[in-house]
Amino acid sequence: MENASHIDLVNPNLSADEKLALVNQEWHRLYEHFTQKASKGKKQFYFYKYASILLAACTAIAASLQVIYDSQFPPWVLPIISAGATVAVAFLGASSAQKIWINSKTTGQQLQTEKFLFNQRAANYRGLSDVECIRIFSERLVLIWNAGHQKWEQHVGGD
What we know:
- By secondary structure, the protein is mostly helical.
- It is built from 5 helices and no strands.
- It has one domain.
- Helix 1 packs antiparallel against helix 2, helix 2 (16-68) packs antiparallel against helix 3 and helix 4 (97-120) runs antiparallel to helix 5.
């Protein structure tokens, strides 16, 4: 959680409604953060995946055209297309885009689940006062955020 929100949530002068508004604001910020990371990872994954497929197909076509039109086909085309395919495949593997996409999406779903349980006063929130529910919800948000960030660090750091 951001420092200002965290300080506000432990401020004894705030009402339960004010604390609830702050924790919901923090939930929304975290949810949007992981949704954007998932969207970016998904776009990167599909870009690299389809670029590598397209460039591999172009490599085969260029090789065929080079054989058919030997003297008329520019000799530099095949190596450039082939290198592009190699680079796209390398970025697909090195970027961990698919893992980042899936892990960010999973973290977003965990945040949604936690908010649903909080709003329904179910699971960890059953039978607790509003103040205790807000405290536990805040703790769970931090745990989910930390776990999601650790997964991201693992994949960005090279597993």
